[in-house]
Amino acid sequence: MSDSLIYKEYRFSILGQYKTLKYEEDSFIIISGHITQGDIFRAIERENSFLVEHNNSLLFPLSYNSEVELVISDLDLEEIYNIKCGDLYLDIYANFSEFSQSTLYVQTYTDIEFIRTNKTLDYSSDYFDYISLNGVNLFDNSFNFLLIIDGRHELSSNDFIEESICVGSNEFYYSELFSFEMYDSKVFIKYGNFGYIGADESQLRIFPYINDNSVFLEKTDVKSVYKIRSYNEYFRLEFYKSSYMEFFGSSYGNNIQFYAY
């Protein structure tokens, strides 16, 4: 379980959707909009899960006669959860039901992690092939995008040294910004104002233009989750110490997401 959840106030972001959660009259409500429009919740640690608290009261829907829990999901990402009540899971219709393809996946954020004030755009992420973890079209230039690695908020784009991209342990709101460009049916990544991300001798670097060395996003089976790859290989993180890491070529890559704000 993530220690970052314990006794902190946070809001739910629904994975791959521009939606968040409220809790009213003994029920969850899914609303469209930026996560800052959702209600504030709190987690209380127990043996294999977290109990969920709202307005200083544990959630205990009378119709289900059980406490609401936050449990680690079955996805290969850290800090992605399901909301559970007894043996049932919160689904995309805001009902508790058996675990299925309709089960809701959520991520949690504290308000300090948001730079943007309430953003009220209302559109369905179902229309877009490439979306952020919070459901925004990656080609929507009214948003900025930041990198999240393996679902861990603290691992994010930070800086580049000697033309090599580095990743630090600062919270992601200090990070460089990303934008995206579709070319030849592939989505290439621009890193701040420095240029496009590419690969040189199995290491990610910055190039002024898209070229044969440029890397691109590859979609995974999980909506809003990608791999970064070149034509020949995937890329993953190498950790040198807690505050310094670099991307290198690998036979497998990290799970990559982008947060829109």
From TrEMBL:
Q: Which organism is it from?
A: Smittium mucronatum
Name of the featured protein: Uncharacterized protein
Its lineage opens with:
Eukaryota, Fungi, Fungi incertae sedis, Zoopagomycota, Kickxellomycotina
